[in-house]
From TrEMBL:
<feature type="transmembrane region" description="Helical">
    <location>
        <begin position="91"/>
        <end position="119"/>
    </location>
</feature>
<dbReference type="GO" id="GO:0006865">
    <property type="term" value="P:amino acid transport"/>
</dbReference>
<feature type="transmembrane region" description="Helical">
    <location>
        <begin position="131"/>
        <end position="153"/>
    </location>
</feature>
<keyword id="KW-1003">Cell membrane</keyword>
<dbReference type="Pfam" id="PF00528">
    <property type="entry name" value="BPD_transp_1"/>
</dbReference>
<comment type="similarity">
    <text>Belongs to the binding-protein-dependent transport system permease family. HisMQ subfamily.</text>
</comment>
<dbReference type="InterPro" id="IPR043429">
    <property type="entry name" value="ArtM/GltK/GlnP/TcyL/YhdX-like"/>
</dbReference>
<keyword id="KW-1133">Transmembrane helix</keyword>
<feature type="transmembrane region" description="Helical">
    <location>
        <begin position="342"/>
        <end position="360"/>
    </location>
</feature>
<dbReference type="InterPro" id="IPR035906">
    <property type="entry name" value="MetI-like_sf"/>
</dbReference>
<dbReference type="GO" id="GO:0022857">
    <property type="term" value="F:transmembrane transporter activity"/>
</dbReference>
<keyword id="KW-0813">Transport</keyword>
<protein>
    <submittedName>
        <fullName>Amino acid ABC transporter permease</fullName>
    </submittedName>
</protein>
<feature type="transmembrane region" description="Helical">
    <location>
        <begin position="188"/>
        <end position="210"/>
    </location>
</feature>
<feature type="transmembrane region" description="Helical">
    <location>
        <begin position="366"/>
        <end position="391"/>
    </location>
</feature>
<keyword id="KW-0472">Membrane</keyword>
<feature type="domain" description="ABC transmembrane type-1">
    <location>
        <begin position="95"/>
        <end position="388"/>
    </location>
</feature>
Length: 400
């Protein structure tokens, strides 16, 4: 008998099944299939039981309620809305209000956080201590209490509309909000808007060209002045050449409130301030730790070449620190977006307040409304993560 035949026969016997069972790859696939099947069965059981209970109580399911008339007003709307619009419209109104406060909050929190993080490392004792007090104070007070503070203790103590704090007879601040002139676009305004858009595009293109030029020659371009010229001066020149086609609609006091212009309701202001300051305190620590992680020899080498401290920070330290800062910074952006749901506590008409609150109470479609609300926050978080991951790949160190 040949040994090769014995080996061949033994591989087809019972031992082959035993070997397959002890194969890590095979077991991993089996366990994953079992886990997915259990999850599907669990979800099916939950949904089936929920639908059965709703049918037993005579509660209709589905999304037909979105076409029904809402019948209630909303204090802040970025799109056209009144009581005659549908519940579907309230969903989009709440969605846009949530996106508005999240977008503005991310911008403000980033600016404040970076400034405070850099100030925390300042050689000036007073500036460094002041930044430390800010960080330790605001990050250790619950966000909800900070929202209440800005809304009830600060904004609700402002004077009435008739006793408004005015700035140049154009901007008014009172308990009802902040009022300032609104732009009125007349014939030819599209030229100015087009010039502004072209200026922004040209600024980005110039910045890319300047960065490539700096890598090749080491020469820098004053992008600050270039941006001012393209984004501000160029549209301003077009504005005057087109005959000033953009005017202003000033707010005017009529009765007990102002009419005309643009108003920022106190609920939006309180929520935006609280979210920005609270999140910025965490971002400041992220920035501080990211800058400290950069080897001090990099700073010494840059300063030995004659670079001032400001340029050393801008050109050497921060670009390297961003590789450490961006991942935890993304988490703070996600937290800010989700924390915006606390707006319900002060009556800001966000998605939770308008759709998951008033609409849910009027329609009783709990499963559909909560599922849609959860889907919105999930989508916003995934989009934010995707954008930040793209930026992270851009600034990441590329190995050669």
């Amino acid at each position: 008998m040949k040994p090769t035949n014995v080996a061949s026969n033994s591989s087809n016997g019972p031992n082959s099944n035993a070997n397959l069972i002890y194969n890590p790859t095979f077991r991993a696939v089996v366990f994953q299939v079992i886990a997915i099947a259990a999850l599907v069965f669990f979800c099916y059981t939950i949904v089936n039981n929920a639908l059965s209970n709703l049918d037993a109580r005579g509660i209709a399911t589905g999304f037909d309620f979105l076409s029904q008339e809402a019948g209630f007003g909303i204090g802040l709307t970025l799109i056209e809305y009144n009581e005659t619009f549908s519940y579907g419209r309230t969903f989009f109104v709440g969605l846009l209000n949530t996106a508005l406060v999240s977008f503005l909050g991310i911008i403000l929190a980033t600016v404040i956080g970076f400034l405070m993080g850099i100030a925390r490392l300042s050689n000036n004792w007073f500036v460094s201590r002041l930044a430390a007090v800010y960080i330790e104070t605001f990050r250790n007070i619950p966000l909800l209490l900070q929202i209440f503070f800005w809304y009830f203790a600060v904004l609700q103590t402002l004077p009435s509309a008739r006793q408004s704090i005015s700035l140049g007879e154009a901007i008014f601040l009172n308990v009802r909000g902040l009022y300032f002139p609104a732009p009125v676009f007349e014939q030819g305004a599209s030229l100015v808007i087009g010039a502004f858009v072209i200026g922004i595009i040209a600024t980005f293109a110039t910045n890319v060209w300047a960065n490539n030029r700096q890598k090749l020659t080491g020469q820098q371009m004053p992008m600050g002045r270039v941006a001012v010229g393209l984004i501000l001066v160029f549209p301003l020149v077009v504005y005057f050449l087109a005959g000033s086609p953009i005017s202003a609609d000033y707010p005017v006091l009529k009765g007990f409130n102002f009419r005309g212009g643009i108003s920022i309701i106190p609920e939006l202001a309180a929520l935006l301030i609280a979210l920005s300051i609270y999140t910025a305190s965490f971002i400041a620590e992220i920035v501080r730790s990211g800058i400290n992680a950069v080897n001090h020899g990099q700073t010494e080498a840059a300063m030995s070449l004659g670079l001032p401290r400001s340029r050393t920070l801008k050109l050497v330290v921060i670009p390297q620190a961003l590789r450490i800062i961006i991942p935890p910074l993304t988490s703070q952006y996600l937290n800010l977006t989700k924390n915006s749901s606390l707006a319900m506590a002060i009556g800001y008409p966000d998605l939770v307040s308008v759709f998951a609150g008033t609409t849910l109470n009027q329609t009783g479609q709990a499963i559909e409304i909560i599922a849609m609300t959860m889907g919105v926050y999930l989508t916003l978080s995934l989009v934010t993560s995707a954008l930040m991951n793209l930026y992270n790949k851009k600034v990441a160190l590329v190995e050669r």
